[in-house]
Design a protein that fits this description.
By secondary structure, the chain is of the alpha+beta class. It has 21 helices and 18 strands. Strand 1 (about 25-30) and strand 2 form a beta hairpin. The protein is globular.
């Protein structure tokens, strides 16, 4: 499906923001000229959702009015759409944006309530917790609670009727007939057996649901062996539902007020992102881009930020969490404590809820850093230095970079990414499916890609690039030269980029046609940062399209490409989640719940599927 036609009246600075949105789930905030939040929304795909506001024909007058006020857009990336829903709810409560619908009863999330007594009832609850019993939650929505209660009726058949109704029954109701209740009202089940079902429900809602899942999986396997496929499919769907309603969230928790510091550093630019936790919920974040002197280490950056930010009038919480404590953390903690006039602790988020919040902060710092690196002002500086370093006649405003991707020679694809003075120009990206070559012959693949690309551009009389970059050393560059000679292209600068002998970032070698020694740029060179950026983007685009081709071909599972995921672990993942789509939707933490999958391997799987 093609993107809707963009509105030509979009403000230039808004266009820059729209050009570099993430394709992941998350929350977006629309702000006015005074920095006030106009609207908060969630999205399964931030890029698609936010861009939908800026089209020629809007669905409602409200949206058209909203767009006229927008001067800035802030986005926060989450692992799942459910996490985005919870964060959206928190931000709406905090800012009360005038373009959001705010309900009067929007004061708390719904809970599941388990009453006390010999035969407890399981019910939906929202509001004050006055009745004696246990409360499980919060859940992201009313539908999630209803879904879980329906599931519990099917699996454990615990009553959900009111106590007054239960006390006056003389015979079983319809719920017993349809196998949704064991009829404790007429003593069809003993207190002991009923208590076992209630204990299983407690385990389930406390996140210790492995035994429950295992029970359903055994039933599913048995039904499948007996060729009862409809019954097996029903058990499979129940497993999916259980995993969905019990999906752990990082947006809400039980911790007190605290801040979490996320840091990302790349290509000479640093991003520090603060996540604010108040009353156990994420209520917002703030991003800083400090000017980092050459050869500064991370400790120095963190030390400077903590003292600058918290001693300059900002609210100081009782706890500040970081991924790694700086060398002077004790001194800083004392200074902050004296400033606040109460104890302040600097801690490493090593486990539990704070660990999840730390990962959330780090991920969004990386996302913000990528957006920063894609900004127009940054690109102009890099392109000017690129012109100087490569001794080009003029600043290159149209640069193309090529890469090849395959798995053991199969489903080979070539990528072409295009950067201009505004950054990546994704509408001009191209992918080439390679055929007619020996499997694994990257030189022949590069030759085919370049020939097809520039033969078409010449035939259509379209604008040619100001600079062409191929991912590879002298061999790939030689093939590129041959193609240019065959097509009689003589006025386009051409370079190759290899990772050097140690294959370390910052040690890239720049190869020129006819030269036997590569150019080595300083690690903090803006020209090198540009080359690294476009090379990494071409590599990412090639791998992504290659995986899509693998999936479409149906010959192998993408899981087969991940080191450490063998046949048994693939089977474990598919049985645990009930299907491929559920694995794609899961967070790294949820993937780690599958038998035989460690958290580190789960993170590799998640990163691979979402890269």
């Amino acid at each position: 499906m093609s993107e809707p036609d963009a509105d030509n009246s979009i403000k230039p600075h808004i266009k820059k923001i729209l050009a570099h949105l993430s394709n992941k789930p998350g929350v977006y905030q629309m702000l006015d000229k005074d920095g006030e939040t106009l609207y908060v929304g969630k999205a399964k795909n931030l890029n698609n959702r936010v861009k939908s506001y800026f089209v020629k024909k809007h669905l409602s007058p409200k949206t058209e009015l909203l767009v006229t006020y927008i001067e800035d857009i802030h986005t926060t990336v989450t692992d799942t759409e459910t996490e985005a829903l919870l964060l959206e709810n928190n931000l709406i409560k905090k800012y009360k944006p005038r373009f959001n619908v705010i309900f009067r009863d929007d004061k708390s999330y719904p809970f599941v309530f388990l009453s006390s007594g010999d035969f407890p009832r399981l019910a939906y609850h929202r509001g004050a917790k006055k009745e004696k019993g246990e409360y499980f939650g919060p859940f992201p929505s009313t539908s999630a609670v209803r879904q879980s209660l329906s599931l519990m009726q099917k699996v454990f058949q615990v009553r959900q009727c009111e106590d007054s109704y239960f006390a006056n029954r003389s015979r079983p109701c319809l719920q017993y007939q349809i196998k949704r209740c064991t009829a404790p009202c007429v003593d069809y089940i003993s207190k002991e057996d009923y208590a076992k079902d209630v204990d299983n429900i407690r385990l389930f809602y406390r996140g210790k649901s492995d035994k429950v899942i295992a029970r359903l999986q055994k039933k599913m396997d048995k039904a499948s062996e007996n060729l009862e496929f409809e019954l097996a499919a029903r058990y499979r769907d129940q497993i999916k539902q259980m995993r969905h309603v019990m999906q752990q969230q990082v947006i809400s928790g039980t911790a007190s007020d605290l801040d979490v510091v996320g840091v990302a550093y790349a290509s000479g630019t640093c991003c520090i992102l603060l996540v604010f936790i108040r009353n156990g919920m994420i209520v917002g974040n703030k991003t800083y881009y400090p000017k980092v002197p050459k050869h500064s280490d991370l400790d120095e950056i963190i030390n400077s930020f903590l003292t600058f930010y918290y001693l300059s009038g900002a609210e100081v919480p009782k706890q500040v969490f970081l991924e790694k404590l700086p060398e002077d953390h004790k001194t800083i903690a004392v200074a902050l404590s004296e400033h606040k006039q109460s104890k302040v602790s600097l801690k490493v988020a090593s486990r539990g809820q704070t660990k999840e919040w730390q990962e959330f902060a780090n991920k969004n710092a990386q996302h913000s850093l990528r957006a920063r690196l894609n900004s127009k002002s940054n690109f102009t500086k890099r392109l000017l230095e690129l012109q100087k370093s490569l001794q080009l006649e003029s600043m290159p405003k149209h640069v193309e970079c090529f890469d090849i991707s395959h798995t053991q020679g199969n489903q080979t694809v070539g990528s072409c990414v295009v950067f201009d003075e505004n950054g990546p120009k994704k509408s001009d990206y191209r992918i080439f499916n390679i055929s007619g070559i020996e499997p694994g012959d990257d030189y022949a693949a590069m030759e085919q890609v370049l020939t097809r690309r520039y033969k078409r551009l010449k035939a259509d009389e379209k604008a040619m690039p100001d600079l062409v970059i191929v991912d590879g050393g002298k061999g790939q560059l030689a093939k590129a030269e041959d193609v240019f000679n065959q097509l009689d292209i003589t006025n386009i600068p051409l370079i190759g980029v290899s990772k050097g002998s140690d294959r370390k970032v910052g040690m890239e070698q720049i190869w020129f046609p006819g030269q036997h020694r590569p150019l080595l740029l300083d690690e903090d060179s803006k020209a090198l940062h540009f080359i690294q950026h476009i090379r990494d983007e071409s590599h990412r685009f090639a791998i992504t399209k290659h995986r899509h081709r693998r999936t479409k071909s149906g010959t192998k599972s993408l899981l087969e490409e991940i080191p450490g995921v063998g046949a048994k672990r693939r089977q474990s993942l598919l049985r645990h989640f009930g299907g491929w789509q559920e694995i794609e939707k899961a967070s790294a933490k949820d993937i780690a719940k599958a038998p035989g999958i460690s958290l580190s391997l789960a993170q590799k799987i998640y990163d691979y599927l979402h890269s």
